[in-house]
Amino acid sequence: MNKKLFISPITIRSLFRKTPTKTYDIITSGAYKTNNLPRIVPKEIPRPNHIYNLVNGPYQSSILIKNQWQLEGIRAACRRARTIIDTVSESIQVGITTDTIDKLVHELCISLGCYPAPLNYEDFPRSCCTSVNNMALHGIPDGRPLKANDILKLDVSVYYNGFFGDVSETYLIPAVDKTKTPVDNDASYLIKHARRCRDRAIAACRPGIEFSTIGRICEEYIKQCNGLKLVKSACGHGLGEQLHEPPQVLHYYDPSEKQMKWIMEEGMVFAIEPVITEGNGRVKMCDDNIQVCTTDNSRCAQFEHTIAITSNGHEILTEGKTDMRPNVLERKAVFV
Prior knowledge:
Helix content is about 25%, strand content about 20%. By secondary structure, it is α+β, with helices and mostly antiparallel strands. The longest helix is centred in the first third of the chain and has 22 residues, at about 70-90.
């Protein structure tokens, strides 16, 4: 019997895709001014343990399997993170600065009773991460106005009533006049497949599955996408009472990593957040020792969900818009 050769539709479309040309701004650390005004959090909003340098002390949680009370606490934090990122996304447009976006995130956190988790975490000076174009991770909000076809990665994490929620999205900044500035198809391609990569990895998560499955799926999917690479140093993580808990979730397969041989069980909570780039997949630390950019200045996209393993599958804790709404007057005050 003759065997028919099967080629994935993704691979076929990728074969006819041209190599992207650099028509975007390359972002460098310190090139744009950052507002030095401190972000103030009211005293009544609880601070996470890392603010008091207790991350490695007696308050460090090492519980992998969450009970119902813990799950509900994480769920509440994730709902707020989702509300914030959905609300802020409505204001993302040409001309807005990432510092203004950060101010929006900060004020929304306060209005929902949350502490913005990035603020003062390992010297990070702002309330969210805004990584533009070639900035892969931990982008510091600054005064640069966004331009049409910029790629913005917005990462929002919050601390609410003792628990963390973590979510990120990538946005292609729309042009004011698309007849003059057409949509960047290469950027759209990158963003589309970064989202699909995350979603395919999540779809496999359920009790009894080895954590290495996440990395296998991400690698296999991106190999079908012409010109795209995984940034291997960008890992997912467990979370709950701390922002980063075991296990470390690799988005590629590494048989030598012991945690990747762990088996998923009901009650585990972790974030899946692969970073995909148009370039070689290598990154470096910027001069500020905080931001991370690609070595070849290629653009990146990232999507993140926090999920919980259930008895028969998984629950995406950061999925979809919620019916929570922040105080309208407080949101208006952000623009003053």
